[in-house]
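Quiz preparation item.
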């Protein structure tokens, strides 16, 4: 159990916000090992409130943009659950793990954006139900090849998330697909030098209001 107390008062602007809540934030973790495999599962419920720096009367100007937070204190709840399977084979120098995680969030505050023809953006926090969810799959694999004195590490992850948006008084849900893959090689044939090379690829797709926005990234880094 935890007690959360927030008190904000600005007499000059007749602004006052108060919150006093007791919260129960349970969490669960379980793990089971069977030979070379380890199975684990987690679940938790977490609450979050507005930070003091985001509770203020009036407007804040940043270049052309204007921000305002005059709504009640945000109360957000996050429900998280996930599972993971790990495999370790010391004889063959193999280490792998894969799993899945789910997050659902719900808040009483939504950020409303108004974009003018000149590009000016006015963001206002309003009292409105705001929810979203994310599903993530991941896979990691590594193997040390003793004869070649080389370590290979590779990974992949995929996330599908949904968010609610309010733009120019139009409420819509955006769906985001993100994929990331990476490969890393490290060679230690020389006792005084470890040579490495990393390549990573990222793909993201955002779907909202009938349009698709695609982004591809590719990075390489010798070391």
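Solution:
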């Amino acid at each position: 159990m935890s007690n959360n107390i927030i008190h904000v008062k600005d007499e000059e602007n007749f602004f006052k916000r108060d919150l006093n809540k007791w919260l129960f934030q349970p969490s669960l973790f379980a793990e089971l090992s069977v030979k070379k495999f380890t199975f684990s599962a987690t679940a938790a419920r977490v609450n979050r409130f507005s930070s003091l720096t985001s509770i203020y009367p009036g407007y804040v100007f940043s270049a052309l943009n204007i921000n305002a937070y005059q709504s009640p204190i945000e109360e957000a709840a996050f429900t998280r659950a996930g599972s993971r399977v790990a495999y370790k084979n010391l004889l063959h120098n193999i280490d792998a793990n894969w799993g899945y995680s789910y997050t659902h969030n719900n808040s009483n505050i939504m950020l409303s954006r108004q974009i003018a023809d000149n590009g000016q953006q006015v963001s206002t926090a309003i009292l409105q139900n705001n929810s979203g969810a994310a599903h993530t799959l991941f896979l990691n694999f590594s193997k040390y090849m003793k004869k070649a004195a080389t370590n290979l590490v590779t990974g992949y992850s995929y996330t599908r998330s949904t968010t609610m948006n309010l733009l120019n008084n139009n409420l819509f849900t955006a769906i985001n697909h993100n994929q990331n893959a990476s490969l890393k090689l490290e060679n230690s044939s020389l006792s005084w030098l470890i040579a490495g090379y990393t390549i990573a690829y990222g793909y993201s797709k955002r779907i909202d209001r009938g349009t698709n926005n695609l982004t591809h990234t590719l990075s390489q880094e010798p070391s």
